[in-house]
Structures are given as structure tokens and as C-alpha cells.
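Please fill in the sequence for the structure shown.

STRUCTURE ENCODING:
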């Protein structure tokens, strides 16, 4: 899976090399930017700093695009007419879009530093969270650390037996064999006979039935490992590598107070350039200028135009493919070649932080084969009294379509029903919630662009190239799709090439 992700651009490293330098005088050239997501906001910030006249047209009444946070009082209307009113308590929020930032996404971290966006750790892997499979272990959730320790321990024991029987496929010297056995014993918590069994060494990995304590009652009771066969047949081992994938390795971050703190910081810098509630209906160009035709996104028949020397378009391809554009066939074909992923996120508010007080789970993610796929616990305000928001579902593909086919009320009921199989407290502690089915979000019609290898090979260059006076940017125009870093890097690349052309002409 990791190799497939890498080939499609999901596991690529950020190519950010430092602050953008746009040398040379654009001599008053104007640029109209379509979309005030992170790609558009970054472009507006950098182009104005370089001396351009900039105007940003944004469909929503807020900036940020998928850099979005729900708070109490927010309203959201999805395609199909369902409307949700967020009832979260003050100070609580839910990120329906991006929710974490890898440590090696250098560009977005740079802008957070530049704009004063405070960050805090996001906990990706919590060894005390759960792994759950409906048909395994009697349907009882297992602690992540128990499955991990037992899986590694059993595999280490098997490898040690093979090494001791001199049945390794590769030749191993006597010295290396002893080192290998020592490494396996350490890695898998094996005893002196290279056996993985219940003792204090294995319990120090997987946890005790009774933890070490003080005084006369302090003697610990080791826990009993699960059988390898049970682990293999459960398929829960598929989740053990979650924190090993490059983009999910520690340290990860989140903005203090919600992901939209990044968008709000950009708005403080370039908010005066943004025209909100503006629906683009056509993008036309000739040899001299670009003309963007638009309407009020909230209704009305009046049509307006905005003209500029150049256009940077960050509208998601799922929407852009439905807009009239005066560009060549190669770019049109490229725009139509990238489907968007279906995904659903559900945020639930609970009366108390029972995952902490009852189960000692502080941040991190529990995984399940139920349609909700995963439960993510807040990585902030640990130990606080009162309420909290849990990401109660984040699912893709067929499950996402199934959830989104339901009304928002029914989606919440399903999330509670499924989540209660892992946390029975759901049934008595739930208060309210919100859900976002991304392929029914009117301004994006999907979660993110999904490139195939063949589509990227055939269309990527045409998508990113400058067509006359129009150039595209966004996460879809990067090798980091689905990440804010990809959006920012694509904006850097697009405006750098555009600036060179402006200076040359």
C-alpha cells in the first residue's frame, strides 16, 4: 500500500526550499485569483508582496476552502438541501477537512511561523487506543499496544527458530546470527529460550493484568498474550503500520484552536483583496487579458465581470470541469481526467471526556472495520473537566456514499450506534454533532483529487502548464494531493512560472 501511495504522490516529501523570491518589477500587472483556499491565499499574499495588483474571487462567505473548522453557531447547507446548525459549546471545534500537519511539510509550517499561528502536537499513534474487528476477539476492542506487542513477539519467535535451525535463505555468519538473535529477542520481548510468553518482559510491552504498585499489594500480574493465529485471522494487523507511513510519523502538529486558524491568519494579511460569495461561471481570455464572469453565490440573476492581465485558478477540478473556459483541449482534458474521492467526517460532542477518565486514552486514533473506520480523540486540553469533541467517523469509498445517502440526523445515529461497540459510553454521553459528506459539498464535490498513474503521466504537465494567461494551482496540481502542503507548493510553483513570464514580457 505504501508503494502504491508513493507512486500516486501520497507519500512524497515536501520540496519546499525556503521563502519564495519573486525578483523583478511586474510593472503593475494584475492577477485575478479564483478561490481563497490555501493555494489562493498564499498566492495572493506573495503576489501582492511582489508588486502585483491582486483580486481574489471566493465562492463562500469565508476563506480557507477545505481548511475549515466547525464551531457553535455555524450553519452549513450541503447539496440536496440538508442544512446543519452546529451546536457545539464555546471553545469546542471540529475540523471536517485537514486535521493534522506532518513535521516535514515545511511550507505550511513556515507560514504558520510567519503569521503567528500557534501549533501543538497532534497525536497520531496512541498505544492505549483501540484496534477493533467485529468478528475477532468476541467483538471486544483490543488495545493497540497489546496487538502490536503480540504480533511482533510471535513473529520474532518464528524468525528466531528459523535462525537457530540455520534455515535462513541468506547466508549469515556466526557472529551476525548471534546479533540477529539478540535483536529479535529485544524487538519481540522473547525470553532466554527465544519464546514469546506471558512474563514481566512481555507485559512491559503489552501491559499488565495488574500494574506494578506500592506496598504489600504492589506485585504486578503479567498479562496473557493473544495467539498469533487469532491476530492473523482478525486482520487487525493491517492497522499496526499507521504511524510508520512517512506522512504520519511523529511529530505531527495541529493549530491551537482549529485548523482554520491558518486561514484566519492569511485573511488578516490579504482579506481586503477577497470578494466573497462570488460564483465563477466562465473564464475567458484573449491575447491581452482574462475576463472572469461571475454571479452572487447566494442568488440573483445579475452577472458581473472581473478583468485582469493574468488568472490563477485554484477552483477544484470537480467544479472547474463544469465551468466554461477559454483554454486549449489539453488543459480541458486534464481537468476532466481527475476524479475526486468520496469521504465522510462526523464530529460528536460528548458531555464528558470519558475516553480519558474511563479508559486513559489521551489523543490518538482507534481503528475498526466498522463503517466509521476510525475514531480520533482530541489532542488538546488533556484532563480538562467538561465536554469534548471526538472525530467519530472518517471513512472513504462505498461507506462514504452510504453515510452521505442518509440525512445528517441519521448519519449521527449510525455513528453513535457503531461507536458504542467500542465505547458504550456513547449511548449516555452524546449531546450533538455534525457531519460532512465531501462529495456533497457544493464548492468542491469531493474530498481531494485522486490521480491514477496513467492519468498523471498523460495529463499532469498539461494541467499545470500556463495556457495563454491562465494557470492552475491547488492540491490537485501537486504530488501531495489531499494535503495543504500540496496546495501551497503548487501555488508557489505556478506563481513563480507566471512571474517569470510577466517579467519576460
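FILLED IN BY: designer on duty
SEQUENCE:
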Amino acid at each position: 500500500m505504501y508503494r502504491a501511495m508513493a507512486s500516486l504522490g501520497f507519500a512524497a516529501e515536501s520540496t519546499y526550499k525556503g521563502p519564495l523570491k519573486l525578483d523583478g518589477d511586474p510593472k503593475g500587472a494584475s492577477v485575478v485569483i479564483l478561490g481563497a483556499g490555501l493555494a489562493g491565499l498564499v498566492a495572493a499574499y506573495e503576489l501582492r508582496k511582489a508588486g502585483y495588483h491582486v483580486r481574489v474571487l471566493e465562492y463562500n462567505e469565508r476563506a480557507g476552502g477545505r481548511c475549515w473548522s466547525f464551531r457553535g453557531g455555524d450553519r452549513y447547507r450541503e447539496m440536496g438541501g440538508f442544512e446543519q446548525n452546529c451546536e457545539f459549546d464555546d471553545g469546542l471545534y471540529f475540523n471536517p477537512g485537514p486535521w493534522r500537519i506532518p513535521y516535514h511539510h515545511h511550507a505550511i509550517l513556515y507560514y504558520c511561523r510567519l503569521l503567528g499561528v500557534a501549533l501543538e502536537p497532534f497525536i497520531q499513534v496512541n498505544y492505549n487506543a483501540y484496534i477493533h474487528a467485529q468478528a475477532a476477539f468476541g467483538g471486544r476492542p483490543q488495545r493497540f499496544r497489546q496487538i502490536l506487542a503480540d504480533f511482533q513477539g510471535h513473529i520474532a519467535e518464528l524468525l528466531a527458530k528459523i535462525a537457530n535451525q540455520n534455515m535462513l535463505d541468506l547466508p549469515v555468519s556466526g557472529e551476525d546470527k548471534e546479533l540477529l538473535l539478540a535483536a529479535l529477542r529485544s524487538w519481540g520481548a522473547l525470553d532466554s529460550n527465544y519464546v514469546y510468553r506471558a512474563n514481566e518482559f512481555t507485559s512491559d510491552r503489552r501491559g499488565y493484568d495488574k500494574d506494578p504498585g506500592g506496598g504489600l499489594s504492589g506485585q504486578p500480574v503479567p498479562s496473557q498474550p493473544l495467539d498469533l493465529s487469532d491476530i492473523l485471522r482478525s486482520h487487525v494487523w493491517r492497522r499496526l503500520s499507521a504511524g510508520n507511513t512517512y506522512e504520519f510519523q511523529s511529530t505531527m502538529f495541529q493549530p491551537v484552536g482549529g485548523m482554520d486558524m491558518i486561514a484566519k491568519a492569511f485573511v488578516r494579511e490579504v482579506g481586503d483583496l477577497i470578494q466573497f460569495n462570488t460564483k465563477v461561471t466562465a473564464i475567458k481570455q484573449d491575447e491581452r487579458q482574462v475576463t472572469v464572469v461571475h454571479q452572487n453565490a447566494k442568488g440573483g440573476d445579475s452577472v458581473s465581470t472581473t478583468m485582469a492581465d493574468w488568472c490563477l485558478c485554484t477552483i477544484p477540478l470537480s467544479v472547474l470541469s463544469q465551468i466554461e473556459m477559454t483554454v486549449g483541449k489539453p488543459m480541458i482534458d486534464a481537468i476532466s481526467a481527475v476524479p475526486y474521492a468520496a469521504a465522510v467526517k462526523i464530529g460528536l460532542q460528548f458531555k464528558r471526556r470519558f475516553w480519558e477518565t474511563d479508559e486513559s486514552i489521551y489523543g490518538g486514533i482507534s481503528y475498526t472495520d466498522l463503517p466509521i473506520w476510525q475514531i480520533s480523540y482530541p489532542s488538546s486540553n488533556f484532563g480538562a473537566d467538561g465536554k469534548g469533541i471526538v472525530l467519530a467517523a472518517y471513512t472513504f469509498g462505498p461507506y462514504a456514499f452510504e453515510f452521505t445517502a442518509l440525512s445528517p440526523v441519521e448519519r449521527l445515529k449510525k455513528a453513535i450506534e457503531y461507536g458504542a461497540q467500542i465505547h458504550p459510553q456513547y449511548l449516555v454521553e452524546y449531546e450533538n454533532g455534525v457531519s460532512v459528506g465531501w462529495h456533497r459539498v457544493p464548492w468542491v464535490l469531493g474530498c481531494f483529487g485522486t490521480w491514477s498513474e496513467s492519468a498523471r503521466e498523460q495529463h499532469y504537465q498539461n494541467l499545470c502548464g500556463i495556457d495563454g494567461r491562465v494557470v492552475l494551482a491547488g492540491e490537485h496540481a501537486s504530488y501531495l494531493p489531499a494535503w495543504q502542503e500540496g496546495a501551497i507548493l503548487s501555488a508557489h510553483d505556478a506563481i513563480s512560472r507566471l512571474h517569470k513570464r510577466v517579467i519576460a514580457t
